[in-house]
Specification:
With about 280 residues, this protein is an alpha+beta fold. The chain is built from 8 helices and 8 strands, in the order ααααββαββαββαβαβ.
């Protein structure tokens, strides 16, 4: 009797244990995974947008010679564009403060590096402690599988100007081409109604090109200089897989987090403009 009474209970226990709500748990887990994945993608896009805006603000503050938007029209433009892109006020203020901290201090340094055996990087720094900067730079490169290597032959250094302008773009270009050799390409922003032209020139002609645009601007209500600088651009377009591009972007983000590092250029950046030297 005890045995027969024991068996049904055992049977009941087994039936309870074999009843599983695992599918429900997996469904919830799967839903949460999708939410996390979607949020991760959105956060990555925001991070990229914020990082790009911060870099534009820092560059504008340094090139324009002032961290005050009232005295620096390029900085004022960079701040306005950052706000339009939804960059938080705190991020904008931090970028301005970072530019102010590093402005005019230390020695300017340029480093070259290679990643994935095919992607070249040029890294511009300003440092008051070269040993610290070099050590930290090597640490970041090593962490991402990159190494110091000569890569300047993969780039061209040139003057670069980005201008927002309306339907009178051809009139401006005619004036510029008549004064000095430039190459140019039209651009359109995601914001409706914003378009303009990118121009490249010899470094020695950059100040002249910028001045000509500044002289033309009062006659054109939409004409505004968004960037005017010397930069490095790849001499050709380099093919890379999506995975390789993601790895390089991660390296660039880590480099830009360092206060000593001002700008980073890679051979993966698209370039259709070449200066005839």
């Amino acid at each position: 009797m005890l045995r027969s009474g024991f068996l049904p209970r055992k049977h009941v226990l087994i039936s309870v244990r074999t009843f599983s709500r695992t599918p429900g748990c997996f469904a919830g887990h799967n839903k949460w995974s999708k939410i996390k994945q979607r949020k991760g993608i959105e956060d990555a896009k925001k991070s990229k947008t914020y990082g790009k805006a911060a870099l534009e603000i820092i560059t504008a503050a340094k090139i324009g010679g002032s961290s005050s938007p009232e005295e620096n029209s390029m900085l004022a433009t960079a701040i306005r564009r950052a706000k339009e892109a939804g960059v938080p006020k705190e991020n904008i203020e931090n970028a301005i403060a970072r530019a102010e901290r590093t402005k005019g201090h230390g020695q300017v340094l340029t480093f070259e590096a290679m990643m994935n055996a095919s992607t070249g990087l040029i890294i511009e720094c300003r440092s008051d402690n070269i040993n610290r900067t070099v050590g930290k730079l090597r640490e970041i490169l090593h962490h991402h599988g990159a190494r110091p290597a000569p890569v300047k032959f993969l780039f061209q250094q040139r003057g670069y100007v980005k201008v927002q302008i309306g339907d009178d773009m051809e009139k401006l270009l005619d004036r510029l081409i008549g004064e000095c050799p430039v190459d140019f390409a039209e651009w359109r922003d995601e914001v409706p109604g914003q378009r303009g032209v990118e121009l490249v020139c010899r470094i020695t002609d950059l100040s002249r090109v910028t001045k000509l645009i500044e002289e033309y601007a009062p006659s054109s209500p939409l004409c505004e200089i968004l960037a005017s600088e010397v930069n490095w651009a790849p001499l050709g377009n380099h093919n890379a897989s999506e995975e390789e591009r993601t790895l390089v972007e991660s390296l660039v983000e880590d480099l830009q987090e360092n206060d000593d590092i001002e700008r980073v250029f890679t051979t993966l950046e698209p370039n259709h403009l070449i200066v005839e030297c």
